[in-house]
Specification:
Number of helices: 5
Bound molecules: copper (II) ion
Distance between the termini: 60 Å
Shape: globular
Largest sheet: 8 strands, mixed
Strand content: 25-35%
Radius of gyration: 24 Å
Length: about 425
């Protein structure tokens, strides 16, 4: 019998489309599935927001009623960095809204900020007056006021929400959220685990407690769901499961999101889950500003890096205007600077990797409320990352629906890169002479 993984790999390429009806594909996959909730009445797997949550709703005469509250909150990016941010219902990002195509929904929005706001339902098809653009399609929601938005969901896909009032400030300090709409008739090819997160950037200048909305490019913190590595939840799955990760971008940069270990398919966006003919195999997908992208893959056992490929986006606070110390012998100036800055230790002559050890040893204590540039430890040592980095952790023996961090991967013997020599003159590699 064809294993589930082989079957999915095959169907994932769209190869069966001509010979097997989509419903037959769905049925076979659902039968073989291990972790999804397709049995019973549920046609979709509830989405899982990394480090976040889904907003409960109340049914009122056939309308799903959600209630969002815009407010100032205290937010922790990681232990050692807290800030006064703005968000919804106590968090940034705000809770994920989750509903099904065809639903009639009402969203109450209460403004507990000291300035007006609105919410724009980014990517949704709705009456113009429900679009949430302050001044253009509605009056601003003043402090203490509650407005109601009500419309019917005409689509499915990975959408977002954010203010369209003093947008530059309100988004820069954390007001954003995801809006997931599942297809009315379920997924033609079922998903076992469905994750989502928003990318964002923050000008949390060293030693400060409020993100600075005036910054255009040189941000200090880069986050998945307003957290930095290693505080970002891992994407957890069981070997062979079909995993979807929905990524939204309400930051000021494009993020090439890269995953190790698999070729994922790019399968959707705020335009919904695309037809199979439009799926692309990639290992890096740029999620542009204002865009969403869905990627899907069949889980392969191991611990796999999952991160933005802009190398500064996987760092925490760092200077962008400092002189280049690569190759510079700083032993003379080291002592002089120490007279002015006790505890200072020059570094960077041979690269920046030593930074994490220095911080761990207590040198280079940065300003208060400021995270070290690189951090995180794995089973083999320092990971030297920060910001937009997390892991995909896939295990053979995970229980369906178990989202707990399974710890580090126990790699089979003989499958880990290992030292064969400590002699720089080892072997006979071909090298070219620099001219
Ligand atoms: Cu990035």
């Amino acid at each position: 019998m064809t294993s589930r993984r082989e079957f999915l790999t095959y169907t994932g390429a769209g190869a069966l489309a001509a010979t097997v009806a989509p419903s037959a594909i769905a049925e076979s996959v659902a039968t073989a599935s291990t972790g999804n909730l397709m049995s019973g009445n549920q046609l979709h797997v509830p989405v899982r927001t990394l480090n976040g949550w889904t907003l409960p709703y109340k049914m009122k005469n056939g309308v799903k009623e959600f209630h969002l509250v815009a407010e100032e909150i205290e937010h922790e990016f990681a232990p050692g960095s807290v800030a006064k941010c703005w968000g919804y219902n106590g968090t940034t990002p705000g809770p994920t809204l989750e509903a099904v195509e065809g639903d009639r929904i009402r969203i109450l929005v209460t403004n507990r900020l000291k300035e007006h706001t609105t919410i724009h339902w980014h990517g949704l098809l709705l009456p113009s007056g429900m679009d949430g653009v302050g001044g253009l399609t509605q009056k601003q929601i003043g402090p203490d006021e509650t407005y109601a938005y009500e419309f019917t969901l005409k689509q499915h896909g990975t959408q977002m929400y954010h203010p369209h009032a003093d947008e530059m400030t309100q988004m820069a300090v954390g007001m954003m959220g995801m809006f997931i709409i599942h297809p009315r008739d379920g997924e033609k090819m079922p998903i076992d685990r469905d994750y989502c997160f928003l990318t964002h950037n923050w000008a949390m200048h060293p030693g400060t407690y409020r993100p600075d909305p005036s910054v255009l490019q040189d941000f200090d913190l880069w986050t998945f769901n307003s957290k930095v590595f290693p505080e970002i939840d891992p994407v957890v799955a069981r070997t062979g499961e079909r995993v979807r990760v929905r990524i939204g971008n309400l930051s000021m940069w494009n993020h090439p999101i890269h995953m190790h270990g698999v070729q994922f398919w790019v399968t959707g966006s705020d335009g919904g889950r695309w037809p199979n003919s439009r799926w692309r195999s990639e290992t890096t997908e740029i999620v542009g500003v204002g865009q969403t992208r869905d990627i899907e893959f069949i889980a392969e056992p191991g611990d796999w890096a999952f991160h933005c490929h802009m190398s500064h986006h996987t760092m925490n606070a760092m200077g962008h205007g400092i002189p280049n110390t690569l190759g510079v012998d700083q032993s003379g100036i080291d002592k002089e600077i120490r007279n002015m800055l006790p505890g200072f230790m020059a570094m960077g002559e041979h690269g920046m990797a030593e930074h994490q050890d220095h911080v761990d040893m207590g040198h280079h204590q940065g300003p208060e409320n400021t995270l070290a540039m690189m951090t995180g430890k794995g089973p083999y040592g320092n990971i030297e990352m920060g910001g937009m980095f997390t892991t995909v952790k896939v295990r053979d023996n995970l229980k369906p629906g178990d989202y707990n961090d399974p710890g580090w991967y126990n790699a089979p013997k003989g499958t880990v890169a290992a030292r064969v020599s400590s002699d720089p003159n080892f072997g006979n590699p071909v090298r070219r002479k620099n001219t």
